[in-house]
Structures are given as structure tokens and as C-alpha cells.
Known about the structure:
By secondary structure, this protein is mainly α. Helix content is about 65%, strand content about 5%. A two-stranded antiparallel sheet has the order 1-2. Strands 3-4 form a two-stranded antiparallel sheet.
Amino acid sequence: MHGTVDGFNYGLVTPVAAFIMACLGGALGLRCTARSVRTERSFKAAWLALGATSIGSGIWTMHFIAMMGFAVHEVPLGYDRGVTFASLAVAIVMVGVGIFIVGYRGATPMALVTGGTITGLGVATMHYLGMAGIRMNGEFEYNTVVVSVSVVIAVVAATSALWAAVSVHGFLGSLGASLVMGVAVSGMHYTGMAALSVRLHGSAATAATTAAGGESPASLLGPMLIGPVAFLILAGVVVMFDPLVVMGKPDWEKRPPRAIPAPRHRPSFPERTSWAASEPPREGSASPHDW
């Protein structure tokens, strides 16, 4: 038999909160990527690593905030801790590969396509690996066509966001790129959830009374979200204190050069070329022409 899937168990609370977290992680990560393009080579890797971790943490946090509103009414759900943490690591690593390609190669078509594809696949891999960590008395079945659409959404939107991050400067450009990234992650997530159906094992009564393996969503996801959220706050503090990250270029580059004031006129005095020209030689002293 099939289970009843509910992705909005708490109404719009979890989708809106998830979208905000996706935008926050995307904004921090993409601004760090843009910052790396305008920095010295010695600091480029550090900014790119911070950007990859911000985006990876943001999309992972978005996914599991959305999953707090996910339920199958006939069975309890549990989560495997190892697989759940592995989905976070995969997200950071794959997004990092895509960001490093764009960060070091620039906004060339090949770099954007390659980096955007890897970043989008990282988003999709994180989602489906996270879903594989759910434990219940049943199994998930996916519509292949809808799954393919969800992956395409992630790749196209991630490529567009990376292009905007390295090509569009200024605060409004970065805001638009972060919204695109948020749409990419959220759209991919809920499109993937639309492809999902659940086949239960045994009768409805047996399925409802059989405990799911793994840890419950509240006991696992709540504490696990503390770390990524704290990191995003810390990354936000770092970004906000760097004007080049926030505004696109430092304040001192925006200000017009100040005119150097002309020196004030000082009264001129006759110069004394030598002590001999101003004072007559004393009696009995030698003239300088005698030297």
C-alpha cells in the first residue's frame, strides 16, 4: 500500500524559513566568491572556502528545515545520523569544487558551465542523499522525469547565480544572485519532493505500529541545525565587516579624489646669499676673496 505524504505539516512556516536560510547561505557564499575575484592570490582560496562552506551549510540547513514539515501519516520517520552528516559533507565539497573553478577561472563560459553544473549537482546530491537517510517501515519511489527536472532546475539556477556573483557588482546584484540561489535550492527541493511516493511494508496497522529505525526528526535535526546556523551567523559577521564584500568595492575607491589645496602665499624676503654680501668685513679680518 502507499502512504500519505505531507510536505507541509506546519503550513507555510517551514517553506518560508527554509527559503530564507537558502537565500542567506547563498548571499554569503556568492559574495565571498565575488570577493575572491578581487583579492590577492594568497587570500583567494580562503574566501572561496568560506563561500563554499556558507552555501553548503545554507542549502543543507534549508533542506532539513523543510524536512521538519515532512511526514508520512501512516508511519513514524527516523533519520540515520551518518547518512545525514554525509549529505552535509557532500554539499560542501561539491559546491566547493564548482566555486573554486569559477573563482580561479573567472566568468568564462566554460568555467561557468562546469562550475554551475557541479554546484547544481551538489545541491541535488545533498537532497537525495539526505532523503536516503530517512528510516521508516517502507521505501521511497521517485518519478524519473520529475527528478530529472529538479536536477535541471538546480544546475541552471546555480550557473546563473555564479555568473551574477562574478559579473554583477554592487549590493543589488549580490541580492539578486542570492535570491536566484534561494530559488534554485527551494525549487529543486520541492520539485524533488513532488516526485516522491511512499510504498509501505505490510498492512497499515502493522506499518503504523512499527517503530522506524534511526533517530526521530526532533531529536536529530534540532541539535544538528545549531552548528550550520551558528557558522552562517559567523560568516555573516565576517562579510559585513568587509566593505568590498558588501558593496562590491571599497569606499575609498568610490570617493572622488580630493583636490590638494594650493600652498598658502608666504611673504617673500630677500635672500642673503652670503654673510659677506650683507656685512662688511671687520677691520683686521681677512676678506673672503683673500682665501
